[in-house]
Design goal:
The chain is of the alpha/beta class. It is built from twelve helices and 20 strands. Helix content is about 30%, strand content about 20%. Strand 18, helix 12 and strand 19 form a beta-alpha-beta unit. The two termini are about 40 Å apart.
């Protein structure tokens, strides 16, 4: 069955949105991926001046890409700076474009959380297709057209929110928008409308629960069945998931992983207590060593590299995401999905790689440790610096007001050292001190100069 089939044509008791590919063998999936990639490389070479230039500079023609070895070691990587440079020189202001402007349907740009934002263009088909990426996970969690969803954000220039809206429309959900509302107004709307799903970032959903308590309200009374969203690692961090469950009285936590360039390319199934499956109908994923550019084995940490099958206006092929991930290419945890699994989703960023006295420290690990210390709230920041030639990390967390800050800082330092294997500096500030964010929460503050940060250039094919 096509992934674009109408929901009412799909058996409501079947848990797989597209069983033909969701349950296919790894060998079948890899063969399909290679076929699609070879076709896409040829199409991009003919239609995208950026890709033609990159491939010509590398001395590669589409016909040269016949095997996975060719793809991994002959085809050049693409990266955000390639597109940014291209759009700065383009009259349209958009980079890597393959379709004429009269075929564009909507403009967006990335969030810019790690530097200059990237302009994006999507056609009408691509916007509709974007919505299908959510259907796999939501359907598996039992969401049907009789359900409703509340969006806790303002619709702006980031495509992630719009694609979530398209996903809700594809499933036929009743949609309630909290756009333009204050936090208090959103809490009251949720209590009044009683939606099946509340959608937002994990940090903001915890913030709404705090607002409700201050107003003498309880979001648990809304009867929400599922919390859903993405943009941060929290939905797949055990400690944060548990805080969300307690604050909202829900059992189902639905995680989505995406980047603006390829939309949401990972969705959680109903069986796993964290992590997402790659949506292999719409994207190919693999990971590489940040320094070597060579593929890493299943289960090892590497930098995530993607090829999108759903962004033809602006193709992204063998594209560096700079996300550090651990991919299991043959998962088996009871859901029946055979698609690759990302147990911890994004562990950190290759361009924020921090090694403290020989120990790699991942932000998601720190978040979980903060959540395990009684007396701390879920708000924290990581401050990275370089002193006397060595990287240092300060974990700044916020008290929930129940204990003194100095005692909590000492307890946090001990907990981190015992679980990470290295001592980090810690600082605990009073409740309400750290900023709150509606969309992606800014966690990492890196004051190292460009020359002090580790080189993350990929070798091999580039």
């Amino acid at each position: 069955m096509s992934t674009d089939a109408a929901t009412h044509h799909r058996p409501t008791t079947h848990r797989h949105w597209n069983a033909a590919t969701q349950t296919a063998s790894r060998e079948q999936l890899d063969a399909l991926h290679l076929q699609r990639i070879r076709h896409l490389v040829g199409w991009a070479y003919e239609h995208s001046p950026l890709h033609r230039r990159l491939y010509d500079d590398a001395g590669v023609k589409p016909a040269d890409i016949r095997t996975w070895d060719d793809y991994h070691h002959r085809l050049p990587f693409t990266d955000k700076p390639d597109y940014v440079a291209d759009q700065e020189s383009a009259e349209s202001g958009f980079g890597g474009i393959a379709l004429p402007q009269q075929e564009w349907q909507q403009y967006f740009h990335t969030t810019g959380t790690t530097g200059r934002f990237l302009n994006e263009a999507f056609g009408d088909y691509e916007m509709h297709k974007a919505g299908s990426q959510y259907c796999y996970g939501l359907w598996d969690h039992g969401i049907r057209s009789s359900d409703s969803i509340y969006f806790c954000f303002d619709f702006g220039m980031w495509i992630g929110l719009w694609s979530y809206y398209w996903g809700a429309r594809n499933l036929g959900l009743t949609i309630v928008s909290g756009g333009g509302a204050s936090g208090v107004q959103r809490v009251r709307q949720i209590l009044e409308r009683r939606p099946t799903i509340v959608c937002g970032t994990p940090t903001y959903l915890l913030h709404l629960a705090e607002i409700a308590r201050r107003e003498g309200l309880d979001v648990r009374e809304a009867g929400v069945r599922m919390l859903a969203g993405g943009g941060e690692a929290g939905f797949s961090v055990p400690g944060t998931r548990e805080r969300l469950r307690q604050a909202w009285g829900v059992e189902q936590i639905y995680d989505a992983y995406g980047i603006g360039e390829a939309l949401f390319i990972g969705q959680s199934c109903a069986e796993w207590g964290g992590g997402v499956h790659g949506i292999e109908d719409v994207c190919h994923s693999y990971s590489v060593g940040p320094d070597s550019g060579d593929p890493v084995a299943s289960g090892e940490v590497g930098e995530h590299v993607i090829t999108s099958y759903t962004h033809f206006t602006q193709p992204f092929i063998k594209y560096r995401t700079h996300d550090l991930v651990r991919i299991d290419d043959r998962p088996d945890h009871g859901c029946g999905w055979t698609w690759k699994h990302f147990p911890g989703v994004v562990l950190g960023r290759a361009d924020f790689m921090v090694t403290i006295r020989g120990v790699n420290v991942y932000p998601t690990a720190v978040e979980n440790l903060v959540s395990e210390v009684p007396g701390l709230s879920h708000h924290y920041e990581l401050h990275i610096s370089r002193v006397d030639g060595m990287d240092r990390m300060l974990v700044r967390a916020e008290s929930n007001g129940s204990e003194g800050c100095s005692e909590l800082a000492a307890r946090l330092a001990t907990h981190v050292r015992e679980n990470v294997g290295v001592r980090l500096e810690t600082d605990v500030v009073p409740s309400g001190t750290l900023p709150r964010y509606e969309l992606k929460t800014k966690r990492i503050f890196d004051t190292r100069s460009a020359s002090e940060r580790p080189a993350v250039t990929l070798g091999g094919a580039r």
